[in-house]
Amino acid sequence: MKNHQSDLCASYIKIFIVVSCYWIVSIATVFVNKTLLSSASVNLEAPLFITWFQCIVSFMICFTLSKTGGIPGVFDFPKGTPWCKETIKQVIPLSIMFTLMIATNNLCLKYVGVPFYYIGRSLTTVFNVVFSWILLRQATSHKCVLCCAFIIFGFYLGVDQENLLGSFSLIGTIYGVIGSLMLSLYSIYTKKILPIVNQEVWLLSYYNNAYSIILFLPLMVINGELTQIWNYDNFNSIFFWIQMVIGGICGFAIGYVTSLQIKVTSPLTHNISGTAKACAQTVIATQWYNETKNGLWWTSNIIVLASSALYARFKQVEMEENSRRPIPEEKKSIV
């Protein structure tokens, strides 16, 4: 009995540490990126270049881990190379979505405040429902659809209140909506591509970052960032490059702690943890930036957070019910 209780206690401590790491890394990543993208100390009007550099840092970490086989006693990094012709052909469509997703997310963060960032990107769940029906022909229950309706209402209310408070950014919100759309598409197509890389999430991350380094180059040219980079005065600043490297490490770390949290808990717990983290992030951001919000603004956040959590719960219940249904004889494998 004592051994069982000690094992249970150790398990709870492990879960607490992992969830805490996820919260710390995720919130820190948002604040670090906001500093890089918008602060006067950095003052570089090249958000895609900053994102591109973060992909380079993540790629170099993945490349090193692929050569060493991972971190002994922590995790094993799967073997694979992104420069195989067949792999490029199969994975590059997903990498395009990945590139657009992280680009629009950072562009959204550049133009909107951290307190509004979660609301600006809150339509991912809605797009998941829409694309699951259009692309996969998967129906969604009325309860989940109702949750999506409340998310849309919360998003609208948040935009309205942000506008009344004078801090609304139309271009930032548009980037947020596009980022939500791309995240939804990326999530759906990831399920299709994972079997190609033997269900190895780390290998897929390695490939995505490798291809994104190339895909970002024309985007930086189109966005007119070459002139900004050429005329930038702080390239010889050690502090600037320390900030850039920290941003890249945070970008890699958030992928690791996200996967680790899902592994030691469950996808539903991860969603609930992410929702609670977003709530804490919003509160911390309003205090950090000394921003005062009215009651309706906070109401919009509560509506979106509660609706997202309920949606995750309803989907879990549906999945459990489907797993308990007997499979018809004609659909069973002869094996």
TrEMBL record:
It is found in: Membrane. Its main location: membrane. InterPro entries: Sugar_P_trans_dom, TPT_transporter. Residues 14-279 form the Sugar phosphate transporter domain. It holds the Pfam family TPT. Keywords: Membrane, Transmembrane, Transmembrane helix. GO terms for cellular component: membrane. The keyword Signal does not apply. It is a multi-pass membrane protein. The chain crosses the membrane at residues 12-32, 44-66, 87-104, 143-159, 165-189, 201-222, 238-258. This is Sugar phosphate transporter domain-containing protein.
